Amino acid sequence: MGDDVDLLGPRGKIGLDPLADWHLFIGDTASLGSFYRLAESIEVPGRAIFIVEVDDMNDAVTATFA
Fold it and tell me: Distance between the two ends of the chain, CA-based, in angstroms?
């Protein structure tokens, strides 16, 4: 058995765990604005990981930001 995962759907307020080492955001390109806004509230040394569905593989980017 693996670890438990909590999944959240859209709602008015989403709180990020300030003690988490990293946060995972999964969605399509329409989600990027919300993802960036949430990621701005993550304090160092926390990290954000985005998995984004793109229509064209030429639009895919892998990047690490410090």
Answer: 33
